[in-house]
Please model this.
Amino acid sequence: MIVVTGATGTIGRALIGELGGSARAVVRRPDQGEALGCDFVVGDLERPESIPLKPGDRLFLNSSLWPGFVRAHQGVVDHAAAAGVAQVVTVSVRGATSSSLLGFGMHGQADAHLKASGVPWSILAPVGFMQNLAADVDEEGRFFGSYGKGRVGYVDARDIAAVAARLLTGPVGPDATYELTGPEALTHDEIAAELTRALGRPVRYVDLPVEEAAVHLEKRGLPAGTAADLAALMSQIGDGRWASTTTTVADLLGRPPRSLREFLDVGTPD
Ligand SMILES: NC(=O)c1ccc[n+]([C@@H]2O[C@H](COP(=O)([O-])OP(=O)(O)OC[C@H]3O[C@@H](n4cnc5c(N)ncnc54)[C@H](OP(=O)(O)O)[C@@H]3O)[C@@H](O)[C@H]2O)c1
Model:
């Protein structure tokens, strides 16, 4: 049995589609499971025992980030190890380490626990998702960041799901981290030009020094410390952390990952 957590999320929904409904989704409310149209169980990552796992099951472990993320994910990994799960495929972020800021640090800690668990593991380490880009554009056609001229090879979350499906349905391979990117790394000015073309209205990238980006994020509702860390992270990304592309999606799927232009022109099923 392939058990899919985070099944209502961006990657999870696409993964359920990739698996053709053969998976068991873990959802927090019954109506979510009914809407997915596949076998489901109501469970919560904060209560690992609520996720039924049997020897030989394959587990897709993914969720959004929240303060209890590391503890919950570690608990689910321990539960999977005790149950004799054959493989855990999880979603991290490219460049995560235990001492990094925000989500990079949370993922680093969760990844370290998984690697030490004894359960066969595959860690998907994507860069930023294309799905977020258009949503960041404000009413005046601007989106803000501290990336400077740094390039990012944004990836379509559906390609992450396709990779997860491949790993969960093929023979369990060696433990490995898969760095996932789109086919090309663009500057945010180039991304603004693509958005302008696709949305049919002018879109402009506004680059801010880290301190100003922190103030901007705080005004948009983030706590001061989080805003400062996020602005610092954007600047680190601008320094090249996500500048290179990988061939991992093409190597695993036998087709190139979707480009930003394809993503914007064809759109997403959601
Ligand atoms: N966005 C990016 O650019 C980016 C880049 C690199 C890595 N990532 C990583 O990708 C992951 C997010 O993937 P995504 O965008 O597909 O997720 P998403 O769309 O934010 O969906 C999150 C899913 O997690 C579920 N969830 C949250 N808390 C839960 C809990 N306590 N118990 C059970 N389920 C829970 C949610 O269920 P409900 O529907 O019930 O809320 C939902 O199905 C994160 O780890 C993030 O760090 C994101």
Notes: The chain has a mean pLDDT of 96. The chain has one domain: 2-266. The longest strand covers residues 121-126. Residues 2-266 form a domain with the Rossmann fold fold (CATH 3.40.50.720).
